[in-house]
Description:
Elements lengths: L1 H15 L7 H23 L3 E3 L5 E3 L2 E3 L2 E4 L6 E4 L2 E2 L1 H31 L1 H5 L14 H4 L9 H11 L10 H22 L5 H16 L1
Antiparallel strand pairs: 1-4, 2-3, 4-5, 5-6
Amino acid sequence: IAAVDMLYQAGRVALFGGAYFDGKAFKWLFVLIYFTLPMTCSVIFSSFRCRSFEEATLGVDGIEYADVYFQRADLSTMCSVGEKWTDEYWFNVFYAALMIAVYPVGVPLVLFSLLRLKRFAIEHRWTRRGGPELENLSFLFRLYAADHWHWSTYDLFRRLLLSSALLALPTVEILFMASFCVAVLSVVMYREVGPYWDGSSDVLSYCCGWQVVVC
Length: 215
């Protein structure tokens, strides 16, 4: 989808002129990436974890192994038999590590860069969405005040830390402590910064933040 969209945009610019990222096709591509990113990252981070089944055994060279582990992201992939890790599992881990640079890190940085390119227009807008030149990116900044145009990328990182990234943690205790610390830190940041366009949204965000902490 992304490749087709980029080719379409290149053809539009070549034929009719205009900026490469200003077409409506890119707007819907950005929206799709923004809202599907947590699901994609969940698969990536769960690739680092393995699980076993109580009744799972495997016979290798006449030896029956009871401690057989399978990859959480793809249960058809065997992580280890006994104390030996499989080559397929290490390949998937290496690939997942590369994808961390592309999706959980790369996508927010790309969105931040696009917002920074339009920073002047965003900071001097008179309405939530701004003018027509900001239409493609308005869904990222329309909730936030002019001087907090970048806050959607911070919030995206927060969402990933409280959802997808937790799947890579080895124990429930570490998962609980990490999620609790991120949730409390988020509440403090949103209270002190007050990034939203209107005060009522700041109050609502603060209340919802404490609900996340309690949960």
